[in-house]
Design goal:
The complex is a heterodimer. By secondary structure, chain A is an alpha/beta fold. Chain A is about 30% helix and about 15% strand. Chain B is α/β, with parallel strands linked by helices. Chain B has 16 helices and 19 strands. Bound molecules: iron/sulfur cluster. The site of iron/sulfur cluster has 13 residues of chain B, from loops. Chain B: InterPro entries: 3-IsopropMal_deHydase_lsu, Acnase/IPM_dHydase_lsu_aba_1/3, Acoase/IPM_deHydtase_lsu_aba, Aconitase_4Fe-4S_BS, Aconitase_4Fe-4S_dom, IPM_dehydratase_rel_enz, IPMI_cat.
């Protein structure tokens, strides 16, 4: 995983609550065995009509949001299926941070494991970003080290678990890190050797 | 000792490492694997030259993609590749696989309990959100993403923050014709799809205690639809009785010893929950969802709601979008909604008890003209059991299709698809836009309600239906 660095990116407002992972990446794209290339399938049924033509009114299809790297949405983003294809698709499309008042647990974890910063923000501040994003193309600076979001006339601190922050900032290989606890795992296994199948 | 919930008891038992400012390192007893969320995890192991730490604590099957036709031939080349990839991975990493022609094949959350792999007190994970199903046995079971699948394969552990505990207490008893599916749909309709976020839910109360194991699985299965990390029910005699004699359950004296330990896991009186909700089971009516998330539900005798009736602006907009997608008119009686397709299956409702309920409704009746109705047993074992009881004959005579086991139309990754614009009464768990096929419209119901809809061609109150027919 690459270390997460401070960046400035364009905001894309997605004015919806309860965006589920079936919408983020529909099931017909889950049959692949790799991690790459899912960006073209992101929000497929919202972006394309039944003939594969772009739907002009969907926010991602509007030219001014084409290069966005920060997605802002409403409550309970990423609910439903555990498919990690959802963050893979968001990342492959170019999103590096997602802002919402709340996220579904598994999705939040999946973002973390892929170096995408999921930021929980007060609903009124999210509302402000969405309204502003709808009328004006603007960029936001995301500084994980300082836990700060900033833009012209916008400054906001955000909370993140210190451990999760460290993993993202360093781009840690979590498995390699866990394997340094090998002795403890082995001891646990010896003490709890129950019948397995 | 301070009274503890079952959640705390299991958590404490599985703690390998604990340190302030960090999540806990938790031991995982059992890892279930399927073809869709695992290929990239095995690939990660290969790239880093890592073995699977405990193949003996890992069990795999193919379910999401598999065809449910009799010859089970996968026509779709990409699905085929995914199935073959799992076969190769299981062979290379020495993992037991209930393959497509195996007598143990089935939906991962149906075969775990059926084989006795699922047991009280275990920590269990699977790259699938409905892993919460296994909590019915008093296990901490939750869904994980593919990176975590790789982590568990490599280390048999996960870093997890201790979740909060929520109690949902269901007082009284469910009325006749009202089942576990109605109960969980009613809970989600009442409290919404994010009420459980950050929590493990323990279901308690008289109504829960009186449910069979299969019904408990239906309830725990849909905990994720309430946003919960997991759902569980403290083990009792019903749990013990279900597990006796199962393939992977302990045998003889070891079973009795295990049973004692299991029963001791039940939450102590006076244990602390971060939040408690209480509902009265006797008030619950048969449920049907009208919208595009599981909380958009109503009782069979209700009307499709008018979005204007929601006082919250966000809810109003969401209801408007949902009703437009579902092509419904506000004010239409729920029972008058016509149906094109009926799907009885999925990890929520494809067990033998579910099939028996549906068969009872189907017996002596016939599927309505123009309706396609599928029965997809959750596992090969369930299918055999149903056939031994003659349920397949009842269904076939009534005009239902009797299929081979798999996830099937629950997410329509195989050929079982609801065509665009068609309306399906489904016993599955998600009514998201396009879930059962692009442009498809899903109404979530219980197996009995689905069978009744198949026969009437529209929804029907199962309580009256049974009285008339
Ligand atoms: S039946 Fe449906 S919900 Fe259950 S595991 Fe299969 S796809 Fe997922």
């Amino acid at each position: 995983m690459h270390p997460f660095k401070t960046f400035e990116g364009r905001v894309c407002p997605l004015d919806r609550t309860n965006v589920d992972t079936d919408q983020i990446i529909p099931k017909q794209f889950l049959k692949r065995v790799g991690r790459k290339g899912f960006g073209s399938c992101l929000f497929y049924n919202w972006r394309f009509d039944e003939h594969g033509n772009k739907k002009a009114d969907f926010v991602l299809n509007k030219p001014e949001y084409a290069q966005s790297s920060i997605l802002v949405a409403r409550d309970n983003f990423g609910c439903g299926s555990s498919r990690e294809h959802a963050p893979w698709a968001l990342q492959d499309y170019g999103f590096r941070a997602i802002i919402a008042p709340s996220f579904a647990d598994i999705f939040y974890n999946n973002c973390q494991k892929n170096g995408i910063l999921a930021i929980r923000l007060d609903p009124t501040r999210v509302d402000e970003l969405i309204r502003r994003g709808a009328t004006e193309v603007f960029a936001l600076t995301v500084d994980l080290e300082q836990q700060k979001l900033s833009a012209a006339n916008f400054d906001e601190h955000f909370e993140i678990d210190p451990y999760q922050k460290e993993v993202l900032l360093k781009g840690l290989d979590e498995i390699a890190m866990t394997l340094t606890y090998e002795d403890e795992i082995a001891t646990y296994e010896k003490q709890h050797e129950t019948v397995v199948h | 000792m301070k009274p503890r919930t079952i959640i705390e008891k299991i958590w404490d038992q599985h703690l390998i490492h604990e340190e302030p400012g960090k999540p806990d390192l938790l031991y995982i007893d059992l890892h279930l694997v399927h073809e869709v969320t695992s290929p990239q995890a095995f690939e990660g192991l290969r790239i880093n030259h890592r073995p699977v730490r405990r193949p003996d604590r890992t069990f795999a099957t193919v379910d999401h993609n598999v065809p449910t036709s009799e010859n089970r031939e996968t026509k779709d080349a990409i699905s085929k590749l995914q199935i073959e990839t799992l076969q190769k991975n299981c062979q290379a990493f020495d993992i037991e696989l209930a393959d497509i022609y195996s007598p143990h094949q089935g939906i991962v959350h149906v075969i775990g309990p059926e084989l006795g792999l699922t047991q009280p007190g275990k920590t269990m994970v699977c790259g699938d959100s409905h892993t919460s199903t296994h909590g019915a046995f008093g296990a901490i079971a939750f869904g994980i993403g593919t990176s975590e699948v790789e982590h568990v394969l490599a280390t048999q552990t996960l870093w997890q923050k201790r979740p909060k505990a929520m109690q949902i207490k269901v007082n009284g008893n469910l009325g006749i014709g009202v089942g576990a599916k109605d109960l969980i749909l009613a809970i989600i309709a009442k409290y919404g799809i994010s009420i459980g976020t950050g929590h493990i839910v323990e279901y308690t109360g008289e109504a829960i205690h009186n449910l069979s194991m299969e019904e408990r699985m239906t309830v725990c299965n849909m905990s994720i639809e309430a946003g919960a990390k997991a759902g569980l029910i403290s083990p009792d005699q019903t749990t013990v009785d279900y597990l006796r004699g199962r393939r992977f359950a302990p045998k003889g004296a070891a079973f009795d010893h295990a049973a004692q330990k299991w029963l001791a896991l039940a939450s102590d009186d006076g244990a602390h929950y971060d939040r408690t909700l209480e509902i009265d089971a006797s008030e619950i009516q048969p449920q049907v969802t009208w919208g595009t998330n599981p909380s958009m539900g109503a009782s069979i005798n209700d009307l499709v709601p008018d979005p204007e009736s929601f006082d919250d602006e966000e809810k109003r907009q969401a209801a408007q979008k949902a009703i437009a997608y579902m092509d419904l008119k506000p004010g239409t009686p729920i029972h008058a909604i016509p149906i094109d397709v009926v799907f009885i299956g999925s990890c929520t409702n494809s067990r033998i008890g579910d099939l028996r309920q549906a068969a009872e409704v189907a017996q002596g009746n016939h599927v309505h003209e123009g309706v396609r109705a599928l029965i997809v047993p959750g596992s090969y074992q369930t299918k055999k059991q149903a056939e031994a009881e003659g349920l397949d004959q009842i269904f076939k005579e009534a005009g239902f299709e009797w299929r081979e086991p798999g996830c099937s139309m629950c997410l329509a990754m195989n050929d079982d698809i609801v065509p665009a614009g068609k309306r399906c009464a489904s016993t599955s768990n998600r009514n998201f836009e396009g879930r059962q096929g692009t442009g498809s419209r899903t109404h979530l119901v219980s197996p009995a309600m689905a069978a009744a809809a198949a026969i009437q061609g529209h929804f029907a109150d199962i309580r009256e239906f049974t009285a008339i027919h």
